[in-house]
C-alpha cells in the first residue's frame, strides 16, 4: 500500500508567505487551487496536475519549490 505522504506531496505545496509576493494575482488567476494561510506559511492544495503546473510556474518565477 502506498505511503500517504507521497499522496500529500503530490497534492500540496507549502511555502513561506513571502514566496508569493508579486505573484499573487497571476497565480490565483492561473490555477485552480486552494490557498490556506497556516502559521506564517501558505499551503497550496489542489489536484496532482494543478500542483505540478503550479510548481513549474513558481519555479519559472524564481520561487524554490522542494
What's the gist of this structure?
With 66 residues, this protein is α+β, with helices and mostly antiparallel strands. The protein has one domain (4-60). The chain has three helices and three strands; from the N terminus they run αβαββα.
Tell me what you see in this structure.
With 66 residues, this protein is α+β, with helices and mostly antiparallel strands. Helices cover 42% and strands 23% of the residues. It has helices at 4-11, 24-30, 48-60, and strands at residues 12-16, 34-38, 41-45. The protein has a 3-stranded antiparallel sheet. The N and C termini lie far apart (24 Å).
What kind of sheet is the major sheet?
Answer: 3 strands, antiparallel
Tally of discrete structural domains:
1
Element pattern in H and E: HEHEEH
Number of strands: 3
Percent helix: 40-55%
Rounded to the nearest angstrom, the distance between the terminal CA atoms is 24 Å
**How many individual helices?**
3
Give me the secondary-structure category.
Answer: alpha+beta
Shape: globular
β-strand percent reads 15-25%
